[in-house]
Amino acid sequence: MANRKKCLVIGFLVFLWTDLDAQVEEKKEEQTCRLLGKFDLNGYVDAKNHTIVIGGLFPIHSRTIPANESILEPVSAKCEGFNFRGFRWMKTMIHTIREINERKDILPNTTLGYQIFDTCFTISKAMESALVFLTGQEENKPNIRNSTGAYLAGIIGSGGSSLSIAASRILGLYYLPQVGYFSTCSSLSDKFQFPSYIRTIASDKYQSRAMVQLIQHFGWVWVGAIAADDDYGKYGVKAFKEHMEEVNLCIAFSETIPKVYSNEKMQKAVKAIRSSTARVIVLYASDIDLSPFVLEMVYHNITDRTWIASEAWITSALIAKPEYFPYFGGSIGFAIPRTDIPGLKEFLYDVHPSKDPNDVLTIEFWQTAFNCTWPNSSVPYNVDHRVNMTGKEDRLYAMSDKFCTGEEKLEDLNNTYLDVSQLRITNNVKQAVYAMAHALDQLSRCEERRGPFSPDSSCAYLPDFEPWQLMYYMKMVRFETHDGKIIKFDSNGDMFGHYDILNWQLDDNGEVAFVKIGEYKFKPNKIELVLEKNSTIFWNTESSGLQSSSSCSSNQDLNGQRECDQCGEDYWSNEQKSMCVLKEVEFLAYDEALGFTLLILSIFGALVILAVMIVYVIYRQTPLVNANDRELSFLIQVSLIITVLSSILFIDKPYNWSCMARQVTLALGFSLCLSSTLGKTISLFFAYRISISKTRFTSMHPLFRKIIVLVSVVVEVGICIAYLVLQPPRVYKNMESQNIKIILECNEGSIEFLCSLFGIDAFLAFLCFLTTFVARQLPDNYYEGKCITFGILVFFIVWISFVPAYLSTKGKFKVAVEIFAILASSYGLLGCIFAPKCFIILLRPKRNTDETVGGRVPTVDRSMQLTSASVSSELNNTTVSTVLDE
For the G-protein coupled receptors family 3 profile domain, which residue ranges apply (predicted)? Predict the structure, then answer.
């Protein structure tokens, strides 16, 4: 019975443990799959009863609202600034899909749905949308296909180069087709980075070249450039500047306008425009990014400029307003060819909030268009925030007190949404949808065993196909549009065609009109700029802008009215850019403060050394002067005068003879100085050996020390002669450091010879230090060994510090660093070796005795001592052997 109870208890415990473990595992699995949050995205979805869905990304708003910093948990940003142009593009996609579904010649057995998101013209929203397309939003149910349940064929969008680049980096991982309609950045042609991106709009590489040809046509040679601080602006202006350089035209300035308003950056761009003499300015930016810049131009009253516009804003109703015409009138730009789209106008008018109370975008459209609030709506009234010239936020539209009645008439509106007279980008949207539909149609018509896919010529089938299989057909697609144009793509996913060249003029009603004055045609084998004869062009500057173009860049002058001539390498253009003048020549001159100071220090050093020599001559018979070879001391003093005065050769304008003399004189001076010092240190070394030896130790004869000096100098002279004969230094005009100056300096010729010259000096200095360091235990009152050691240490410290200082300076300051090193090392040797002796000779004459100079040197054998007389005898080398006093 007891065993049975135990079994029941154990079984119950096992059950509890198993159940608890299962709950923990379930909880872990649930936590693993739980999404951290949902993206706040607005848009339109129609996926019911459709097996295939096409995604769409459109900038229905112009920006996001800054996040509330008090919220700890990150949330998806809200959007503001309703964009009627983007709303029309989105409606065009829906209209095109419905049109395709009604056709019997394209996808006859398949209907298309759509899932469209608002990117708010920001990269973050474009990324959110791309992730939702791939994974869906349902919690705990990640779906690689689509959150609608239908199969996602591809994406139309994203409505801007930076947005398309961001989205394509994600979509390209899955090779999901993406068809752009408004993104012109040339980097999107790179199939290594963006393998699944194609577009129905031309690449910027054609537009930038077209701008340069237009500038050449009108004879402008002095042009400024302004770009938005994004991929579209930066890549566009970069290509434009490269083409300008190819044809020898001049860029006056290049500035950027910020995506997020910055008063400092905006004022920098404004200052560049106001201060420059250029009156023709290329402007690469979208209309949304351009709005604050336009307000700045109005605020500063900057007129008399001719603007060359990119396709992103030349036909934008946001910029082309009558109140801006005094500042931007006469703008010339490139536009996508316009067309008419049958049935689109009626479809655009068929919009009303009452049709779907949950359609937040339509309600917001209605509220913004009619300046009213829709009753019983949770959609907030759109408050358009725009940054003004002071950098503060202004509300351009206050909250409306009146409610919308629903009786408002769209016919009374005059905004971008209903304007179908300039359907350019809108037509690109239509053709992007058709390109994907034609690719799907060709995929569906594949015949078994005649397909394009290896290894067995298989086909792909609707709706179960891989994105890369559809991409194959996308690259091969070719179709005729409703207006008779042929759409096809090259190997980079780009298309050929032409631009309309437009000029801003005022019509009879005082509105801005886009007058076509020419075309720019680009085909695989032909690029042509065609301007219409007798076309009337409105100019916002005097003399068609030609007067403002009579300037060139800083190293060019104007030749006639068509191009700039490059000045010679020794010349620079004058302030008026009308002629070439000699560049300023820079070198370390005597008449400037730095050169004069170094000259004084050199002369002063030579006078100090000369004074030391005079002291030594007057007191040449004293023990201190006689100690350790008087002749070598005089040689060191002479060599120091040579090194100090050699620094004068580095000052003033360099010539070939001075370039050859300066390094050679310096090397010979240091060679003589250091070899003579080595003779002294060898004497100290032998004195030390005598002090520790138990037996007689033979000294070095004075003649051998002179031979060391002679050999060292002769070797140095030989290298100097070879250096001057084979690869001598020459005067060099350095124009790389500063374009506006010519820096005269010496090209030292062979680095190998130069290293050999000063390598011998470094080797002699090392031997001096080694011998004096070994002999550092000589008696304290005989201090010459310590003085030489400190002098050589100063020498090494100065020249080791010289190397990084020399390499980090340019121009005349480089020469000044070298002179300073010469003087510092020379002063160091002079002060350490001779200053203590002169101090004793002149101020402490009582210490200038044999006993003080020599002292008693302890030996290894305590019973043997070296007297001061014997030390002096050894140091003076008057005898061959050292005299020991037992």
Answer: 594-849
Mean pLDDT, the chain cut into blocks of 10 residues (886 residues total): 56 55 51 58 88 93 75 75 93 96 92 93 90 66 54 90 92 92 92 94 90 89 92 92 89 90 90 91 92 92 92 90 93 93 94 88 91 78 41 44 86 86 92 96 89 86 88 93 91 89 91 92 82 83 43 48 62 67 82 91 94 90 78 90 92 89 91 88 70 54 79 90 89 73 83 86 88 65 73 91 87 89 93 89 82 51 37 38 29
Q: Which of 777, 370, 739 is nearest to 566 (CA)?
A: 739
3-state secondary structure at position 530: strand
pLDDT score at 140: 35
Tokens, residue 806: 């020399």
Classify residue 805 by burial, with Cβ atoms within 10 Å: 0-12, 13-18, 19+.
Answer: middle
Describe the chain by its helix, strand, coil percentages, rounded to 5.
45, 15, 35
Identify the pLDDT of residue 39: 77
What letter represents residue 101's amino acid?
A: N
The predicted pLDDT at position 798 comes to 92
DSSP E strands, 296-410: 306-309, 332-335, 385-387, 393-395
Q: How many CA atoms lie within 13 A of 748 on its CB side?
A: 14
Q: Distance between CA atoms of 782 and 257, rounded to whole angstroms?
A: 75
Beta bridge partners of 280: 223, 306
> Which of helix, strand or coil describes residue 485?
coil
532 touches 516 (CB < 8 A): yes
- C-alpha 181/C-alpha 200 separation (Å) is 5
DSSP state of 378: -
Give the pLDDT of residue 422: 82
By CB atoms closer than 10 A (0-12, 13-18, 19+), residue 379 is: buried
Give the rounded distance of the alpha carbon of 85 from its chain centre: 34
Give the chain's domains with CATH numbers: 204-335+497-551 (3.40.50.2300), 593-876 (1.20.1070.10)
Closest CA to 316 of 134, 59, 128, 562: 59
674 within 8 A of 765, measured Cβ to Cβ: yes
Q: Cα(213)–Cα(409) distance, rounded to whole angstroms?
A: 46
Question: Which residues make Cβ contacts (< 8 Å) with residue 141, sequence separation at least 6?
Answer: none
pLDDT at residue 853, as a whole number: 64
Helix (H/G/I), strand (E/B), else coil: 241: helix
Distance CA 642, CA 57 (A): 80
The neighbour count for residue 794, using CB atoms within 10 Å, is 17
* Cβ atoms of residues 512 and 314 within 8 Å: no
Q: By C-alpha distance, which of 160, 171, 78 is closest to 121?
A: 160
Task: For residue 845, give both structure tokens.
Answer: 């004459």
3-state class of 487 per DSSP? strand
Distances in whole angstroms, Cα of residue 152 to Cα of each of 104, 107, 115, 537, 696:
22, 16, 9, 48, 104
Classify residue 272 as left (phi > 0), alpha (psi -120 to 50) or beta. alpha
Q: Can you give the pLDDT at residue 631?
A: 84
Phi and psi torsions of 203, nearest 5°: -75, 155
